[in-house]
């Protein structure tokens, strides 16, 4: 089900925007090792809500983010 939902939503976004989509961010940051493996089949880069910066050693399927705050 997860793979179908990720694939179908990706396809719909690409069709509507006319661009290739290769990144994904987990809604509310919720994911598991199982869902991470599935997302890796569909997307090149997957973002989490883990705090941090991306380095050359970062896992492209589990990328951290930097919060810019609520005032932006």
Write up this protein.
The longest helix is centred in the N-terminal third of the chain and has 16 residues, at 2-17. The chain starts with a helix and ends in a 7-residue tail after the last strand. Helix 1 (2-17) packs parallel to helix 2 (33-42). The protein has two helices and three strands. It has a three-stranded parallel beta sheet with strand order 1-2-3, covered by helices on one side. It has 72 residues and is α/β, with parallel strands linked by helices.
Features:
72 residues; alpha/beta; three-stranded parallel beta sheet; 2 helices
Summarize the structure.
With 72 residues, the protein is an alpha/beta fold.
Measured by DSSP, the beta-strand proportion falls in 15-25%
* Helix content range: 25-40%
Instruction: Indicate the low-confidence ranges by residue numbers.
Output: none
Number of helices: 2
How are the strands ordered across the major sheet? 1-2-3
Tell me the radius of gyration: 13 Å
Structural class: alpha/beta
Distance between the termini: 36 Å
Main β-sheet description:
3 strands, parallel
Order of helices and strands: HEHEE
Overall average pLDDT: 92
Give the overall form.
Answer: globular
For the secondary structure, the number of strands is 3
